[in-house]
């Protein structure tokens, strides 16, 4: 019995010694991190200097209180204006599950030693000044679920090894200086829900098997130099609610009959590419669609009236294409859009629209905030009923063939910031009611056939 008691005492003593050693190691790692923080203007780390406080009580530090008591499990010091670098000693915090240091002024590299944090689930270093490459051995953090290194100055290629992070749910690398291609291995991360690689200098094609990311809800690849033909796999995400591949060099036609594959889609952006062909009617089957951005492409033909079947549509941008409308049937899409009671943005500028402006232009949603039809060849007159758009902030119709007078009801659009009607064939007097537009900061009426004097009430305008 005595021997057993002695053995148990020795075991307890060894366990206590190991715990004390681990606690000392964790504290030393935190102190090392603090030593490379050169500026703490908000005093966020003041408690770290209090020697009477256990490190688990320091600001931003959380420790385990169960199986491994007093081991550091999270370091959360975001949005504190901290200046400094990332100490490799943080890799000694082997029980770390969470590091959040976003929205600070941290520079230098992401230490490759972080690859030793096998329990790490969340690494968020967004919106700092980090440079260098993404260390490939970060992929040794096999428990990672959230990797956010966006809005930094990281360079080099996206490591192909990222495909090993099979538990990753969110990957955000946007707004860096990354080059190369999107690694094909990324499609192996089938747990991904959110993928954002936008605002880099990525080239090459979007992986043709990207639809293997069956759980993907958010896909943001805009503002890169991606090329290749627009693939049907981009429209094969049953959980996707947001896809943006705008401002790239994608070409070809939008694949047909894909509407039923996007049952949850709310925002679809294909703007600023080299897409051609007609706007597909199947978009009307994307019943939850709220925003559709197809501007700055090479789309041709008539705008499908079926778009008016989208009950939630609030944003429709079709400008800078080669779309046509001349006859009443061509303009049927505008009549159909009167069914979209949530429509706020309608952008039709820089196309080949001709013929008379339909009266339905005044029957759109009263929630309209932006209406642009400039740089076309639209004729006819502006209906008096346009005055019902009391929420309108921008009305751009310059460089068309619009005739008649400016309706006095335009003076009721008291939310207007921009009003541009120049380069048309307006006649008559400029209505004095425009003096009611006290929020205007841009007014352009030149290049018309107005008569009479400038209304004296315009002295109240702040333009």
UniProtKB/TrEMBL annotation:
Record bears the keyword Repeat: yes
GO cellular component: membrane
Name listed for the protein in its UniProt record: Leucine-rich repeat-containing N-terminal plant-type domain-containing protein
Short name of one Pfam family: LRRNT_2
Sequence ranges assigned to domain Disease resistance R13L4/SHOC-2-like LRR in this UniProt record: 115-323
Record's bilayer topology term: Single-pass membrane protein
Location in or out of the cell: Membrane
Signal sequence, start to end: 1-17
Organism annotation: Dioscorea zingiberensis
A Gene Ontology biological process term: defense response
Domain Leucine-rich repeat-containing N-terminal plant-type stretches: 24-64
Principal localisation: membrane
Source taxon at top rank: Eukaryota
TM regions (residue ranges): none
UniProt entry keywords in alphabetical sequence: Glycoprotein, Leucine-rich repeat, Membrane, Repeat, Signal, Transmembrane, Transmembrane helix
Keyword rRNA processing belongs to the record: no
């Amino acid at each position: 019995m005595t021997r057993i008691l002695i053995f148990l005492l020795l075991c307890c003593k060894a366990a206590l010694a190991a715990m004390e050693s681990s606690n000392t190691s964790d504290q030393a790692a935190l102190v090392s991190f603090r030593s490379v923080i050169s500026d703490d203007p908000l005093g966020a780390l003041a408690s770290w200097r209090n020697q009477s406080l256990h490190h688990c009580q320091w600001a931003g530090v959380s420790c385990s209180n169960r199986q491994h008591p007093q081991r550091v499990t999270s370091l959360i010091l975001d949005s504190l204006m901290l200046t400094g670098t990332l100490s490799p000693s943080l890799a000694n915090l082997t029980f770390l599950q969470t590091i959040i240091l976003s929205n600070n002024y941290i520079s230098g590299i992401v230490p490759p030693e972080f690859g030793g944090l096998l329990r790490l689930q969340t690494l968020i270093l967004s919106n700092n000044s980090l440079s260098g490459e993404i260390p490939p051995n970060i992929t040794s953090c096999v428990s990672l679920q959230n990797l956010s290194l966006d809005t930094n100055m990281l360079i080099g290629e996206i490591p192909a090894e990222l495909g090993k992070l099979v538990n990753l749910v969110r990957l955000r690398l946007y707004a860096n200086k990354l080059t190369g291609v999107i690694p094909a291995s990324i499609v192996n991360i089938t747990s991904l829900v959110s993928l954002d690689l936008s605002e880099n200098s990525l080239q090459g094609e979007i992986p043709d098997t990207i639809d293997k990311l069956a759980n993907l809800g958010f896909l943001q690849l805009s503002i890169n130099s991606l090329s290749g033909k627009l693939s049907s796999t981009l429209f094969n995400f049953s959980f996707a609610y947001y896809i943006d591949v705008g401002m790239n060099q994608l070409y070809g036609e939008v694949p047909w009959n894909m509407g039923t594959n996007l049952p949850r889609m709310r925002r679809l952006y294909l703007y600023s590419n080299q897409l051609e062909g007609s706007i597909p009617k199947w978009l009307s089957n994307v019943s939850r669609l709220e925003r559709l951005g197809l501007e700055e492409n090479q789309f041709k033909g008539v705008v499908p009236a079926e778009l008016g079947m989208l009950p939630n549509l609030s944003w429709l941008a079709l400008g800078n294409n080669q779309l046509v409308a001349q006859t009443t049937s061509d303009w049927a899409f505008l009549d159909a859009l009167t069914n979209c009671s949530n429509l706020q943005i309608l952008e039709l500028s820089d196309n080949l629209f001709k013929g008379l402006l339909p009266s339905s232009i005044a029957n759109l949603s009263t929630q309209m905030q932006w209406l642009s039809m400039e740089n076309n060849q639209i004729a006819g007159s502006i209906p008096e009923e346009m005055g019902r758009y009391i929420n309108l902030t921008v009305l751009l119709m310059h460089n068309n063939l619009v005739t008649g007078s400016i309706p006095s009801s335009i003076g009721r659009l008291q939310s207007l910031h921009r009003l541009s009607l120049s380069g048309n064939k307006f006649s008559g007097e400029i209505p004095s009611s425009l003096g009611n537009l006290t929020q205007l900061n841009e007014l352009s009426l030149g290049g018309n056939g107005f008569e009479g004097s400038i209304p004296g009430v315009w002295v109240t305008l702040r333009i």
